[in-house]
Amino acid sequence: MIADEPLAPWLARWRLTPDGDAFSTPFGSRLAPVRHEERPAMLKLAGGPEERDGAALMVWWDGEGAAAVLGHSGDALLMERALGEGSLADMARDNHDTAATLILCQAALRLHAPRPRPPPPTLRPLSAWFRALEPAAERHGGLIAKSAAAARDLLASPRDVAVLHGDLHHDNVLDFGARGWLAIDPKGLIGERGFDYANIFYNPWPVAAEPGRLRQRLALVAEAAGLDPARLLQWILAYGGLSAAWTLESGMPEDGPWRALAIVEMAAAEV
């Protein structure tokens, strides 16, 4: 199983039993399904600072709107495992996009709700998160430059500042059965809460790019989340350029930035 993996010391420390094969994420984290006191759980070893910051945020959420944390130390995070059969991406592809979108909005509202204790000090401001966008706009212009202009205006005058997930989309809100739909894999940001809804409009593919889909979702999300539709549209525009910039910056653009820029073009047309 996974006895020879970097996860092995944590199996011993928390007295975990392997319950499947370990695997790696694109961000370099290592995960393994385990059992903790006979309870299904997931062990995750962070692959970098971003993932460590996300783990700290999971602890802070304390199972409210997110998977419950069963153990946390250094790079290691032990959390409850999603065993439900539902998938928001599948729902969207199976003509239940409205239901999936509303579930994501409810998840965001729970995550953004104030907590009685101060948030973790590791949260990153949105201005730092968007750092890659301006250089990409200077190099490539076009739609990325339009995204950068939108981001510049939004970041200069933030509204409704909240603790943010940072990567809220259909595959990061999972079916936890009786516990409902809960978030995993946050990035750990702080800034205007409207940002957290933007990624919804880019997923899943190709549903996100269907004619009329963006406009339909815009009305739905704005009402469900209590957001100004025009400002939400600006966040959609800004997010897409940032996504494209990251893809170009990575040097390994398997799909290229074209998917993100296709949605950016739709958002720019609506603006």
Task: List segments where confidence is low: pLDDT < 50 over at least 5 consecutive residues.
Answer: none
Overall structural domain count: 2
If classified by CATH, what would the architecture of the largest domain be? Alpha-Beta Complex
Radius of gyration: 19 Å
Distance between the termini: 52 Å
Order of helices and strands: HEEEEHEEHHEHHHEEEEHHHH
How many β strands by DSSP? 11
Return the CATH topology of the largest domain. Aminoglycoside 3'-phosphotransferase, Chain: A, domain 2
Helix vs. strand class? alpha+beta
Explain the overall architecture:
- The protein has two domains: 8-80, Phosphorylase Kinase, domain 1, CATH 3.30.200; 88-270, Aminoglycoside 3'-phosphotransferase, Chain: A, domain 2.
- It is 44% helix and 17% strand.
- The chain contains eleven helices and eleven strands.
- The chain has helices spanning 8-13, 49-61, 88-93, 97-112, 126-129, 133-140, 142-156, 195-198, 213-225, 229-250, 258-270; strands at 16-18, 23-24, 30-36, 39-45, 69-73, 76-80, 124-125, 161-164, 173-175, 181-183, 189-192.
- Strands 1, 2, 3, 4, 5 and 6 form a six-stranded antiparallel beta sheet that branches. A three-stranded mixed beta sheet has the order 7-11-8.
- A hairpin with a 2-residue loop joins β3 and β4.
- The longest helix has 22 residues, at 229-250.
- The mean pLDDT is 94.
